[in-house]
Amino acid sequence: MDEDRKPFIVGIGGTAAQGSSTEQALAVALASAERAGARVQMFGGKILASLPHYLTDGTATSEEARQLVEAVRAANGLIIASPGYHGSISGMVKNAIDYLEETAKDGRVYLDGVPVGLIATAYGWQATGSTLATLRSIVHALRGWPTPLGAAINTSGGIFKDGVCSDAGAAGQLDLVGRQVAEFARIHLADPSVTETGPG
């Protein structure tokens, strides 16, 4: 496939801990999107941890923030992964999402018409549902299109190791999230009118 016609999928997620389950889950989903013919770029925990709080003094000079915003502007699809902290998304992931305010006056406002896959990880089931619901609400507010499946991943069993998910059900969810984003991004790339929303 012509590289220019491959959908470009950006992944955002992780924690401050190196090799976190959240970041590994995101990597699994992005690998699925790549197998489905997409180009991918991941902004993992290390980059997210380096981002200044949005609209503080470092916002305008952060190279990591500039790269994140420019990647999202170019993206045909996103995958966002957050741990469930106290029943909601982490502050670090929320701060990264806050940087999308920089796209408010773009020709494509925020994530208008962009398919977005969502992943919530938690040490137990309770926080996965509320975290996933929060992610969906945020994507709706940004005019994005959450894919039909959102992955709720219980990591209490230590199911991620060296980038591999040992739980077949969880691995299947992550694979499907990646494939759905790649497929919907390809459809939108071929015909942007499929997600037209009109004046906002």
Describe the structure.
This protein has a single domain (3-191), classed as Flavodoxin domain (Rossmann fold, 3-Layer(aba) Sandwich). Helix content is 40%, strand content 18%. The chain has 6 helices and 8 strands, in the order βαβααβαβαββββα. It has helices at residues 21-35, 45-50, 63-74, 91-98, 126-141, 168-190; strands spanning 8-13, 39-43, 77-83, 115-122, 145-146, 151-154, 160-161, 164-165. Strand 4 (115-122), helix 5 (126-141) and strand 5 form a beta-alpha-beta unit. Helix 1 (21-35) crosses helix 6.
State Rg.
16 Å
CATH class: Alpha Beta
CATH hierarchy: architecture = 3-Layer(aba) Sandwich
Largest sheet: 6 strands, parallel
- Report how far the terminal alpha carbons are from each other: 35 Å
Output the structural class.
alpha/beta
- Shape estimate: globular
Uncertain parts: none
Mean pLDDT: 94
Superfamily at the CATH H level?
Flavodoxin domain
CATH-defined topology:
Rossmann fold
Beta fraction: 15-25%
Order of helices and strands: EHEHHEHEHEEEEH
Number of helices: 6
Number of strands: 8
